[in-house]
Amino acid sequence: MAKDDLTAGFTGTPIEPPTGVRKAAKTASDAVKRETHAVALAAADHPHTATGLVLAIGALAFAIGFVMGRSSIENERGYWR
Q1: Is 78 helix (H, G, I), strand (E, B) or coil?
Q2: What are φ and ψ of residue 36, in 5° steps?
Q3: What are the residues whose beta carbons fall under 8 Å from the beta carbon of 17, sequence distance 6 or more?
Q4: Which DSSP string do the residues of 7-49 spell out, in sequence order?
Q5: Smaller CB count within 10 Å for the chain: N or C?
Q6: 16-28: per-residue pLDDT in tens?
Q7: What is the spatial distance between Cα 2 and Cα 77, in angstroms, rounded to a whole number?
Q8: What value, to the nearest 5°, has the Cα angle with vertex 68 and ends 63 and 72?
Q9: How far apart are CA 29 and CA 32, in angstroms?
Q10: Residues 28, 31, 32: CA angle, nearest 5 degrees
Q11: What is the structure's pLDDT at 8?
C-alpha cells in the first residue's frame, strides 16, 4: 500500500503579511481574545467574586437606567394622582 501525500493543499504562510487596517484589526482581535481568556480564567478561579461583580454592575446599570427614565418624564403629575 502506497503512502498518501499529506502535503497536498496550502500549508505555508500567505505571500504578503497583513498591513494597514487588516494588521490593526488582527492585532485588536488577538488582544480581545487574550483578555477574554484572562477574564474567563479569573472568573473560574474566583467564582464568588465574579458573581458579586456581575450583580453589582447589574444593580448599578439598573439604578442609572431608573434615574434616567424618571428624569425623562415630561409632566410631573402622573395619571394615578
Answers
A1: coil
A2: -65, -35
A3: 23
A4: T-S--S--SS---THHHHHHHHHHHHHHHHHHHHHHHHH-HHH
A5: N
A6: 777 888 889 989 9
A7: 88
A8: 150
A9: 5
A10: 90
A11: 61
pLDDT digits (tens, 9 = 90+) for 65-76: 998 888 877 666
What nine digits make up the cell of 16? 504578503
Residues with Cβ within 8 Å of residue 67, at least 6 apart in sequence:
none
- State the DSSP code for 6: T
* HEC-encoded secondary structure of 41-73: HHHHHCHHHHHHHHHHHHHHHHHHHHHHHHHCC
Q: Which amino acid is at 46?
A: H
Between helix 47-71 and helix 21-45 the angle, nearest 10°, is 110
State the pTM of this model.
0.52
> Given the C-alpha cell 488582527, which residue does it identify?
26
